[in-house]
Amino acid sequence: MIPFPNISPEIFSIPVGSMTFSLRWYALAYIAGLLIGWALIRRAIEAPRLWTPGTAPLNREQLERLVTWVIIGVILGGRLGFVLFYQPEYYLAHPVEVLKVWEGGMSFHGGFLGVIVAGIAFCRREGIPMLPMADLMALATPPGLMLGRIANFINAELWGRPTDLPWGVAFPGEAAQDCPGVIGLCARHPSQLYEAGMEGLILGLALRFVVWRAGWLRFPGRTTGLFVAGYGLARFTVEFFRQPDAQFVSPGNPLGLASQVNGYGLTMGQILSLPMILAGLWLIARARAL
């Protein structure tokens, strides 16, 4: 097995009066993902050959305003997602703590939902067609997904199932080392890195190819469909290696299957991924050239 590198979740900390400002790898993943996404969209809207009739759905000034909306969506969505998904009882009892984002506590899924809401609101405000904008957002998203999953690995969270493969990682913590039947250190799949590779690198390269080589931006919704279907397929696949949600695991159901028929079953993550795959394929099939 591979020992966990034990990288601190905090890059640095600076005392500010009675408080401490900390920059975490997870926050840096958000920042870097936004900057890379902005650069990808800017390059795409400045290439007339990608569009029909040669004009992108937004200009550079609108892109600058979009970045502001996305940042707000990321911060509000990420923080509210963490509060509602992970520690609702604590924050209900301590509502002032919700505002202390500098102390950490951001949900990647919440931030992703926040970006979607911000994008829809921005399109309505600016009179921008939603499908071409969705295609640009799809092109820009994989780098953030990849960096977010790498940050999950650094934080030693969302690890995978126990494994005896040579690249299994001995993650720290009592929960990660709770492997029935295993004597000594328990190695687990580094499923965060699997997701970084599939959701981020591979999907990102596929989207880059269809946009710049196959001209898919001329078919509004097709690039978005590939992103949605590709993300769903990547998540469906990684669920075979990812530790299932605790509420589904029991002595009679060690694989954490949420649905079982004749000895075969799916995890909750796989069940939720199937509609994404179907919706993505539907978007690809219905996309028509402008």
SSE arrangement:
Layout: E1 2-3, E2 10-16, E3 19-24, H1 25-45, H2 60-85, H3 88-93, H4 108-126, H5 130-140, H6 142-154, E4 169-170, H7 191-212, H8 222-238, E5 257-261, E6 264-267, H9 268-286
Helix pairs in contact: 1-2, 1-5, 1-6, 2-4, 4-5, 5-8, 6-7, 7-8, 8-9
Number of domains: 1
Distance between the termini: 53 Å
Summed up, the helix count is 9
Q: Write down how many β-strands occur, each being a DSSP E stretch of 2 or more residues.
A: 6
Strand residue percentage: 5-15%
Percent of residues in helices comes to 40-55%
Radius of gyration: 21 Å
Strand order of the largest sheet: 1-4
Keywords:
single chain; about 290 residues; mainly alpha; two-stranded antiparallel ribbon; 9 helices; globular
